[in-house]
Protein backbone atom coordinates (compact mmCIF):
# COMPACT_ATOMS: atom_id res chain seq x y z
CA UNK A 1 0.00 0.00 0.00
CA UNK A 2 2.81 2.38 0.90
CA UNK A 3 4.49 1.71 -2.44
CA UNK A 4 1.25 2.41 -4.32
CA UNK A 5 0.75 5.71 -2.47
CA UNK A 6 4.37 6.71 -3.12
CA UNK A 7 4.04 5.91 -6.82
CA UNK A 8 0.82 7.91 -7.03
CA UNK A 9 2.46 10.91 -5.38
CA UNK A 10 5.39 10.72 -7.81
CA UNK A 11 3.06 10.64 -10.77
CA UNK A 12 1.14 13.63 -9.42
CA UNK A 13 4.22 15.66 -8.59
CA UNK A 14 6.22 14.87 -11.75
CA UNK A 15 4.22 17.12 -14.10
CA UNK A 16 4.33 19.89 -11.52
CA UNK A 17 8.11 19.69 -11.29
CA UNK A 18 8.43 19.75 -15.08
CA UNK A 19 6.17 22.75 -15.31
CA UNK A 20 8.15 24.46 -12.58
CA UNK A 21 11.36 23.92 -14.50
CA UNK A 22 9.81 25.31 -17.69
CA UNK A 23 7.82 28.11 -16.07
CA UNK A 24 8.46 31.48 -17.63
CA UNK A 25 8.03 35.12 -16.79
CA UNK A 26 6.34 37.17 -19.48
CA UNK A 27 7.59 40.62 -20.40
CA UNK A 28 6.00 43.02 -22.92
CA UNK A 29 8.44 44.97 -25.10
CA UNK A 30 8.19 48.75 -24.72
CA UNK A 31 9.51 51.69 -26.71
CA UNK A 32 13.23 51.97 -26.11
CA UNK A 33 13.81 48.25 -25.57
CA UNK A 34 16.58 46.59 -27.56
CA UNK A 35 17.70 43.00 -28.01
CA UNK A 36 20.96 44.03 -26.37
CA UNK A 37 19.20 45.55 -23.36
CA UNK A 38 16.75 42.67 -23.00
CA UNK A 39 19.62 40.15 -22.98
CA UNK A 40 21.54 42.21 -20.42
CA UNK A 41 18.52 42.75 -18.17
CA UNK A 42 17.16 39.24 -18.01
CA UNK A 43 20.19 37.04 -18.68
CA UNK A 44 22.96 39.35 -17.40
CA UNK A 45 24.68 38.89 -20.77
CA UNK A 46 24.20 41.62 -23.43
CA UNK A 47 26.18 39.54 -25.93
CA UNK A 48 23.44 36.91 -25.89
CA UNK A 49 21.32 39.02 -28.26
CA UNK A 50 22.55 37.42 -31.53
CA UNK A 51 21.47 34.04 -30.14
CA UNK A 52 18.13 35.52 -29.08
CA UNK A 53 17.60 36.76 -32.63
CA UNK A 54 18.92 33.61 -34.36
CA UNK A 55 16.68 31.30 -32.33
CA UNK A 56 13.46 33.28 -32.79
CA UNK A 57 11.81 33.02 -36.21
CA UNK A 58 9.40 35.78 -35.24
CA UNK A 59 12.27 38.28 -35.51
CA UNK A 60 13.62 37.78 -39.06
CA UNK A 61 15.27 41.22 -39.12
CA UNK A 62 17.45 42.21 -36.14
CA UNK A 63 16.65 45.89 -36.74
CA UNK A 64 13.06 45.31 -35.68
CA UNK A 65 11.39 44.38 -32.46
CA UNK A 66 7.99 45.80 -31.72
CA UNK A 67 6.38 47.47 -28.72
CA UNK A 68 3.67 45.09 -27.62
CA UNK A 69 5.58 41.93 -28.45
CA UNK A 70 5.73 39.47 -25.58
CA UNK A 71 8.82 37.56 -24.54
CA UNK A 72 8.94 34.50 -22.33
CA UNK A 73 11.93 34.43 -20.00
CA UNK A 74 13.16 31.02 -18.92
CA UNK A 75 16.21 29.99 -16.98
CA UNK A 76 19.07 30.79 -19.36
CA UNK A 77 17.05 31.53 -22.48
CA UNK A 78 14.51 33.93 -23.94
CA UNK A 79 11.77 33.20 -26.46
CA UNK A 80 9.93 35.92 -28.37
CA UNK A 81 6.21 35.33 -28.84
CA UNK A 82 5.17 35.95 -32.48
CA UNK A 83 3.24 39.14 -33.14
CA UNK A 84 -0.01 39.06 -35.11
CA UNK A 85 0.16 40.85 -38.50
CA UNK A 86 -2.27 43.58 -37.42
CA UNK A 87 -0.01 44.41 -34.47
CA UNK A 88 3.07 44.62 -36.71
CA UNK A 89 1.35 46.97 -39.12
CA UNK A 90 0.93 49.59 -36.42
CA UNK A 91 4.20 48.86 -34.65
CA UNK A 92 6.96 51.37 -34.07
CA UNK A 93 10.46 50.48 -35.15
CA UNK A 94 13.02 50.25 -32.37
CA UNK A 95 16.73 49.46 -32.55
CA UNK A 96 18.34 46.14 -31.79
CA UNK A 97 21.56 47.49 -30.28
CA UNK A 98 22.09 50.87 -28.56
CA UNK A 99 25.19 53.06 -28.78
CA UNK A 100 26.67 55.80 -26.62
CA UNK A 101 26.29 58.35 -29.43
CA UNK A 102 22.52 57.88 -29.67
CA UNK A 103 21.65 57.10 -26.07
CA UNK A 104 20.10 60.53 -25.53
CA UNK A 105 17.79 60.30 -28.56
CA UNK A 106 14.35 58.68 -28.14
CA UNK A 107 14.87 55.10 -29.38
CA UNK A 108 11.63 54.99 -31.35
CA UNK A 109 13.04 57.68 -33.66
CA UNK A 110 16.24 55.76 -34.40
CA UNK A 111 17.34 53.11 -36.80
CA UNK A 112 20.41 51.84 -34.95
CA UNK A 113 23.19 50.14 -36.84
CA UNK A 114 23.91 46.48 -36.25
CA UNK A 115 27.46 45.29 -36.94
CA UNK A 116 28.08 41.71 -38.01
CA UNK A 117 31.49 40.05 -37.64
CA UNK A 118 32.62 38.29 -40.83
CA UNK A 119 35.24 35.78 -41.91
CA UNK A 120 35.66 36.80 -45.56
CA UNK A 121 34.65 34.39 -48.31
CA UNK A 122 34.36 36.37 -51.56
CA UNK A 123 37.45 34.63 -52.94
CA UNK A 124 35.66 31.33 -53.55
CA UNK A 125 33.79 32.21 -56.76
CA UNK A 126 34.42 34.11 -59.99
CA UNK A 127 32.05 35.01 -62.82
CA UNK A 128 32.85 34.25 -66.45
CA UNK A 129 33.16 37.99 -67.13
CA UNK A 130 35.70 38.43 -64.32
CA UNK A 131 37.67 35.42 -65.50
CA UNK A 132 37.94 36.92 -68.99
CA UNK A 133 39.72 39.96 -67.52
CA UNK A 134 42.08 38.04 -65.18
CA UNK A 135 45.85 38.37 -65.53
CA UNK A 136 48.31 35.48 -65.76
CA UNK A 137 51.53 34.74 -63.90
CA UNK A 138 53.95 34.09 -66.79
CA UNK A 139 57.43 33.90 -65.25
CA UNK A 140 59.83 34.48 -62.36
CA UNK A 141 63.53 35.40 -62.17
CA UNK A 142 64.95 31.86 -62.50
CA UNK A 143 64.03 28.38 -63.65
CA UNK A 144 62.32 27.22 -60.49
CA UNK A 145 59.02 25.47 -61.11
CA UNK A 146 57.21 26.45 -57.90
CA UNK A 147 57.07 29.87 -56.23
CA UNK A 148 56.36 30.96 -52.67
CA UNK A 149 56.17 33.99 -50.37
CA UNK A 150 58.74 36.68 -51.17
CA UNK A 151 59.44 35.56 -54.74
CA UNK A 152 59.35 38.15 -57.55
CA UNK A 153 57.09 37.26 -60.48
CA UNK A 154 55.99 38.69 -63.83
CA UNK A 155 52.35 39.02 -64.85
CA UNK A 156 50.66 39.51 -68.21
CA UNK A 157 47.78 41.87 -67.62
CA UNK A 158 44.71 41.92 -69.87
CA UNK A 159 43.71 45.21 -68.27
CA UNK A 160 46.97 47.08 -67.41
CA UNK A 161 44.92 50.06 -66.18
CA UNK A 162 43.72 47.97 -63.23
CA UNK A 163 47.29 47.62 -61.93
CA UNK A 164 49.60 50.25 -60.47
CA UNK A 165 52.56 50.04 -58.08
CA UNK A 166 51.29 49.02 -54.64
CA UNK A 167 48.05 47.45 -55.92
CA UNK A 168 47.20 44.12 -54.18
CA UNK A 169 46.09 41.15 -56.29
CA UNK A 170 44.91 37.70 -55.33
CA UNK A 171 46.36 34.54 -56.87
CA UNK A 172 43.96 31.76 -57.79
CA UNK A 173 43.35 28.66 -59.86
CA UNK A 174 40.06 27.87 -61.59
CA UNK A 175 37.97 25.01 -60.23
CA UNK A 176 34.78 23.42 -61.53
CA UNK A 177 32.26 25.35 -63.59
CA UNK A 178 29.11 26.54 -61.81
CA UNK A 179 25.75 26.45 -63.59
CA UNK A 180 22.77 28.52 -62.58
CA UNK A 181 20.51 26.22 -60.52
CA UNK A 182 17.34 27.47 -62.26
CA UNK A 183 18.32 28.33 -65.85
CA UNK A 184 21.14 25.82 -66.22
CA UNK A 185 23.31 28.51 -67.86
CA UNK A 186 27.02 28.61 -66.91
CA UNK A 187 27.61 31.62 -64.67
CA UNK A 188 31.12 31.19 -63.32
CA UNK A 189 33.65 28.97 -61.63
CA UNK A 190 34.72 27.90 -58.20
CA UNK A 191 38.06 29.39 -57.24
CA UNK A 192 41.00 27.78 -55.48
CA UNK A 193 42.73 30.55 -53.54
CA UNK A 194 46.54 30.33 -53.77
CA UNK A 195 47.73 33.52 -52.10
CA UNK A 196 48.33 37.19 -52.77
CA UNK A 197 50.87 39.50 -54.38
CA UNK A 198 51.56 43.20 -54.71
CA UNK A 199 52.44 45.07 -57.90
CA UNK A 200 55.87 46.77 -57.82
CA UNK A 201 56.19 48.03 -61.42
CA UNK A 202 54.28 48.25 -64.71
CA UNK A 203 55.83 48.10 -68.18
CA UNK A 204 53.15 48.03 -70.86
CA UNK A 205 51.06 44.89 -70.43
CA UNK A 206 53.66 43.23 -68.19
CA UNK A 207 53.62 43.87 -64.43
CA UNK A 208 56.33 43.01 -61.93
CA UNK A 209 55.05 41.84 -58.56
CA UNK A 210 56.14 40.21 -55.30
CA UNK A 211 54.27 37.32 -53.71
CA UNK A 212 53.18 38.43 -50.23
CA UNK A 213 51.16 35.37 -49.15
CA UNK A 214 51.24 31.77 -50.39
CA UNK A 215 48.56 29.34 -49.20
CA UNK A 216 49.69 26.71 -51.70
CA UNK A 217 52.56 26.22 -54.16
CA UNK A 218 52.33 28.75 -56.98
CA UNK A 219 53.36 28.15 -60.57
CA UNK A 220 53.35 29.68 -64.02
CA UNK A 221 49.89 29.86 -65.52
CA UNK A 222 48.14 30.69 -62.26
CA UNK A 223 45.74 33.62 -62.48
CA UNK A 224 45.47 36.96 -60.69
CA UNK A 225 42.68 39.43 -60.09
CA UNK A 226 42.40 42.65 -58.04
CA UNK A 227 41.70 41.93 -54.40
CA UNK A 228 39.70 44.01 -51.98
CA UNK A 229 40.53 44.21 -48.26
CA UNK A 230 38.95 41.36 -46.33
CA UNK A 231 36.02 42.64 -44.30
CA UNK A 232 36.21 41.90 -40.60
CA UNK A 233 32.74 43.33 -40.07
CA UNK A 234 29.82 44.75 -42.01
CA UNK A 235 27.04 47.10 -40.90
CA UNK A 236 23.49 46.06 -41.75
CA UNK A 237 21.58 48.53 -43.91
CA UNK A 238 18.23 48.50 -45.63
CA UNK A 239 18.16 48.06 -49.39
CA UNK A 240 16.49 50.94 -51.21
CA UNK A 241 15.01 48.63 -53.85
CA UNK A 242 13.23 45.30 -54.03
CA UNK A 243 15.50 42.73 -55.64
CA UNK A 244 14.98 39.02 -56.12
CA UNK A 245 17.45 36.37 -57.25
CA UNK A 246 18.84 32.95 -56.37
CA UNK A 247 21.44 31.26 -54.22
CA UNK A 248 23.76 29.95 -56.95
CA UNK A 249 26.82 28.57 -55.14
CA UNK A 250 28.57 28.31 -51.80
CA UNK A 251 32.11 28.28 -50.51
CA UNK A 252 33.18 24.67 -50.22
CA UNK A 253 31.58 21.59 -51.69
CA UNK A 254 28.77 21.07 -49.18
CA UNK A 255 25.31 20.56 -50.60
CA UNK A 256 23.25 21.62 -47.59
CA UNK A 257 24.00 24.98 -45.99
CA UNK A 258 23.20 26.72 -42.75
CA UNK A 259 24.15 29.42 -40.29
CA UNK A 260 27.64 30.95 -40.78
CA UNK A 261 28.09 29.46 -44.27
CA UNK A 262 29.25 31.76 -47.08
CA UNK A 263 26.99 31.80 -50.14
CA UNK A 264 26.99 33.47 -53.57
CA UNK A 265 23.91 35.00 -55.19
CA UNK A 266 23.13 36.15 -58.73
CA UNK A 267 22.54 39.77 -57.72
CA UNK A 268 25.29 42.37 -57.76
CA UNK A 269 26.23 46.04 -57.81
CA UNK A 270 24.68 46.48 -61.26
CA UNK A 271 21.34 45.59 -59.70
CA UNK A 272 21.85 48.06 -56.86
CA UNK A 273 22.80 45.53 -54.19
CA UNK A 274 25.21 46.83 -51.54
CA UNK A 275 27.38 45.36 -48.79
CA UNK A 276 25.36 45.30 -45.58
CA UNK A 277 22.01 44.64 -47.26
CA UNK A 278 19.97 41.96 -45.54
CA UNK A 279 18.56 39.12 -47.65
CA UNK A 280 15.70 36.79 -46.90
CA UNK A 281 16.16 33.22 -48.16
CA UNK A 282 13.03 31.31 -49.14
CA UNK A 283 11.88 28.29 -51.13
CA UNK A 284 8.77 27.57 -53.19
CA UNK A 285 6.14 25.70 -51.22
CA UNK A 286 4.73 22.56 -52.77
CA UNK A 287 1.02 21.85 -52.52
CA UNK A 288 0.03 18.71 -50.64
CA UNK A 289 -1.53 15.72 -52.37
CA UNK A 290 -4.86 16.58 -50.75
CA UNK A 291 -4.83 20.22 -51.85
CA UNK A 292 -7.94 21.47 -53.64
CA UNK A 293 -6.09 23.65 -56.15
CA UNK A 294 -3.26 22.05 -58.15
CA UNK A 295 -2.03 25.11 -60.06
CA UNK A 296 -2.29 27.71 -57.31
CA UNK A 297 0.96 29.40 -56.22
CA UNK A 298 1.37 28.99 -52.47
CA UNK A 299 3.46 31.44 -50.40
CA UNK A 300 7.17 30.66 -50.22
CA UNK A 301 8.65 29.11 -47.09
CA UNK A 302 10.96 31.54 -45.29
CA UNK A 303 14.14 29.61 -44.52
CA UNK A 304 16.58 32.18 -43.19
CA UNK A 305 18.48 35.39 -43.73
CA UNK A 306 21.94 36.49 -44.84
CA UNK A 307 23.96 39.70 -44.94
CA UNK A 308 25.80 40.80 -48.09
CA UNK A 309 29.56 40.95 -47.49
CA UNK A 310 30.79 42.05 -50.89
CA UNK A 311 29.31 42.83 -54.29
CA UNK A 312 30.69 42.29 -57.76
CA UNK A 313 28.95 43.60 -60.91
CA UNK A 314 26.77 40.49 -61.39
CA UNK A 315 27.13 38.53 -58.15
CA UNK A 316 27.52 39.01 -54.43
CA UNK A 317 28.92 37.15 -51.45
CA UNK A 318 26.72 36.79 -48.36
CA UNK A 319 27.03 35.30 -44.89
CA UNK A 320 24.11 33.21 -43.64
CA UNK A 321 23.05 34.71 -40.30
CA UNK A 322 20.08 32.51 -39.57
CA UNK A 323 18.55 29.34 -41.00
CA UNK A 324 15.39 27.57 -39.91
CA UNK A 325 16.11 24.66 -42.26
CA UNK A 326 18.92 23.44 -44.52
CA UNK A 327 19.57 25.82 -47.43
CA UNK A 328 20.58 24.76 -50.92
CA UNK A 329 21.37 26.03 -54.41
CA UNK A 330 18.26 27.31 -56.14
CA UNK A 331 16.69 28.83 -53.03
CA UNK A 332 15.33 32.31 -53.66
CA UNK A 333 16.92 35.42 -52.13
CA UNK A 334 15.25 38.82 -51.81
CA UNK A 335 16.27 42.14 -50.30
CA UNK A 336 14.76 43.42 -47.06
CA UNK A 337 13.41 46.91 -47.70
CA UNK A 338 11.18 47.53 -44.67
Structural topology:
Elements: H1 2-22, E1 25-28, H2 35-43, H3 49-54, E2 70-73, E3 78-80, H4 85-89, E4 115-117, E5 125-127, H5 128-132, E6 135-140, E7 146-147, E8 152-156, E9 168-179, E10 186-203, E11 206-214, E12 218-219, E13 223-226, E14 233-235, E15 244-250, E16 262-265, E17 278-283, E18 301-311, E19 316-323, E20 332-335
Antiparallel strand pairs: 1-2, 2-3, 4-14, 5-10, 6-8, 6-13, 7-12, 8-11, 9-10, 9-13, 10-11, 15-16, 15-20, 16-19, 17-18, 17-20, 18-19
Short description:
It contains five helices and 20 strands. The chain is mostly beta strands and 338 residues long.
Describe the structure.
By secondary structure, the protein is mainly beta. Helices cover about 15% and strands about 35% of the residues. It has helices at about 1-20, 35-45, 50-55, 85-90, 130, and strands at about 25-30, 70-75, 80, 115, 125, 135-140, 145, 150-155, 170-180, 185-205, 205-215, 220, 225, 235, 245-250, 260-265, 280-285, 300-310, 315-325, 330-335. β18 (about 300-310) and β19 form a beta hairpin.
